[in-house]
Write a structure and sequence with these properties.
- By secondary structure, the protein is mainly alpha-helical.
- It contains 6 helices and 2 strands, in the order ααααααββ.
- A two-stranded antiparallel ribbon has the order 1-2.
C-alpha cells in the first residue's frame, strides 16, 4: 500500500497532467506555448513534460510546506500553487519529493527538471533535455 507521502505526490502529478488540456481549451495557447518552446530550443514533447512536472512540483511544495495530506489536497488553494510556481527557487520545489515514483514517467520528468540547465530563469537554448 502506498504511503500518504506517495499518494500526495500522485495527486500533485495528476494536477500537472490535467493542466495543459485545461489551458488548451483556448486553442491559441498551445500554439503560443509550442512557439515559445521552439524559440528556447526545447522539443515540444519534452517542454510540455516540463510544464506538467513544474506544476506538480509547485503543488507538492505548497502541500508539503502546509502539512497537507493526500486526502486534504483538494482544499489546497490554487493561488498558493501559482505563487509557489513563481516565487520558489528550483531547490525549494524539489525538496521533500518521494525517493521513488510509482509512475516511471513522473520519475523521468522530475529527473528532466533536475537536469535542465537554466539561464536567467529560462532553459538554455540547445540544452539536451
Amino acid at each position: 500500500m502506498a504511503s500518504d507521502h506517495d499518494m500526495l505526490w500522485r495527486r500533485c502529478a495528476h494536477l500537472g497532467h490535467v493542466l495543459l488540456p485545461l489551458m488548451d481549451q483556448e486553442p491559441w495557447r498551445q500554439a503560443r506555448r509550442h512557439e515559445n518552446l521552439r524559440t528556447w530550443g526545447i522539443d515540444t514533447v519534452e517542454g510540455e513534460c516540463l510544464v506538467e512536472v513544474f506544476a506538480a512540483l509547485a503543488a507538492h511544495a505548497v502541500a508539503a510546506e502546509a502539512g497537507v495530506s493526500a486526502a486534504e489536497f483538494d482544499a489546497l488553494p490554487l493561488s498558493a500553487v501559482a505563487e509557489a510556481a513563481t516565487g520558489k527557487r528550483d531547490i525549494e520545489l524539489l525538496a521533500g519529493l518521494p525517493d521513488t515514483f510509482a509512475d516511471d514517467r513522473d520519475g523521468q520528468a522530475v529527473d528532466l527538471f533536475r537536469h535542465t540547465p537554466t539561464k536567467a530563469g529560462r532553459p538554455v537554448a540547445g540544452s539536451s533535455i
